[in-house]
Amino acid sequence: MIHSVESPKHSASVIAGVIQRLSVSQLKKHKLCPRAWFFRKVRRLPEPTIGAQNIGTEGHAQLEHYLSTGQDVLGPFAKSGAHLLPVPGPELLVEQKLDGDAPLTAGGIPFTGSVDLVNPRQLATDGVLRITDHKFTSCIEELAATAEQLADADTEPGLQMVGYGAWALGQAERFPGLRTLELEHIYYQTRGQRLAASVVASVPVEHIEREWRTKVEPQVEAMKQHAQAARADDVPANYGPACTKYGGCPFMAKCLTGESKTMSLRDKLLSKPTESTPITATVELPAVLPPDAPEPAPIQVAPKVAEQPAPKRRGRPRKAPEPTQSAAAITPPTLDSSVSEHDGSGSPAKDLDVRALFIDCIPTAWGVLQPEPLTLYVDTMARRVSQAAGVDDLRFAGSDSSLGFGKWRGALAMAVRDDPPPPGVYLALGLAHSELMQVVVEALEPSFEIVVRGVR
């Protein structure tokens, strides 16, 4: 487990653009999105704690106590995997520090953190050392890593386990005769049925050495460069699934707004209206790029003068005019995106009650409404339906439940249509990786004035 609480002795891991120390969790965060790592570790912006982290922290503490003392203090989640754990004993190494004797280093930078469990019982006879990390997850079937991923430092789980393996290789006196490393994840399911599973990758020490040298060391060099960036905009961002993983990136708004960009006069007026300057608030519809498209040049938007409404006419209403060039500019032909407006009346660009949904793409400019991930709304509605049906997770409702046999999809869609999110601009990223998100987006589309889909 990598501790998130930092000791007073090392109050900052990155000081004045120089990395003082690293952790495996930092490597994982940087691999997932360098800019999110920059906000957290270089700018030192706070990161909220979510409920899933609390469950994992408590479960890790129970497992540590049990493996160290043999006293069974395991809660319901941890107890589901008790049969996968070794018998407690003094030879087991529990919560081993990475910065102890012969600390783990990369690029000359020491690492902090700890390894959940090191089991040397097969070392003397077979030259095998097993390193275990405990994982508490909502769904093992969907979220568990494969053995191949645990051995590959280009993946998030592999980056962590290869790091632990590299630490073990630096302990030659402690682990003599080491030839093979067994990298293990033990998963404990926290929703639905109480399940546990073990995934093990068995690799020779040469594999660990090669992964660390060819993949991790270059990443650390990149982190050194990113730590010296003057602006967050100078650090690359991985738009896409990284924005919604682990409940959504807490730095999404700051990342999308571009903290170093100069605010235009029009934006200043819109954000701080005065009595002497009457303003009609408008929502400028953005150009939209798919996650893998190059970043466009900044768009200059001139202030618009509010038009007086035309006098009312008697008789048959006029036919709606054809779209003008300014409306077509919403989706330039060079962009791989499609826009569908479900309400042809009125102008969403001049209405603060607009609902806009961006699916697998990121807006590059907007007016007074700031984009926000749809993830929180999805989680809230799924939890509401689960509680109403009396189940932990609607996706794993049993056959005796009203949500069984896939009926949860219809129930969730009905709840979403009855209680859509408030007006705003929402981002539905990583649609292919979340069945809950797919159901919610499909149910919401008819009620949104603007729907933009990224094309891959």
Give a short summary of the structure.
The protein has helices at residues 24-32, 34-42, 51-69, 76-79, 123-126, 140-143, 147-150, 156-169, 205-227, 252-257, 265-271, 325-328, 375-389, 408-418, 435-444, and strands at residues 14-15, 18-19, 22-23, 93-97, 105-106, 109-112, 114-119, 128-137, 180-189, 196-204, 288-289, 337-340, 355-359, 362-363, 371-373, 424-428, 450-454. The protein has 15 helices and 17 strands. The chain has 2 domains: 8-231, Lambda Exonuclease, Chain A (Alpha-Beta Complex); 330-456, no CATH class.
Characterise the protein shown here.
The chain has 456 residues and is α/β, with parallel strands linked by helices. It has two domains: 8-231, Lambda Exonuclease, Chain A, CATH 3.90.320; 330-456, no CATH class. The protein is built from 15 helices and 17 strands. The chain has helices spanning 24-32, 34-42, 51-69, 76-79, 123-126, 140-143, 147-150, 156-169, 205-227, 252-257, 265-271, 325-328, 375-389, 408-418, 435-444, and strands spanning 14-15, 18-19, 22-23, 93-97, 105-106, 109-112, 114-119, 128-137, 180-189, 196-204, 288-289, 337-340, 355-359, 362-363, 371-373, 424-428, 450-454. The protein has a five-stranded mixed β-sheet with strand order 4-7-8-9-10. Strands 12-17-13-16-15 form a five-stranded mixed β-sheet. Strands 3-6-5 form a three-stranded mixed β-sheet. Strand 1 (14-15) and strand 2 (18-19) form a beta hairpin. It is globular, with a radius of gyration of 26 Å. The two termini are 37 Å apart. Residues 1-12, 260-308 and 320-351 have low confidence and may be disordered. It comes from Myxococcus landrumensis. Residues 323-338 have a biased composition (Polar residues). Residues 288-297 have a biased composition (Pro residues).
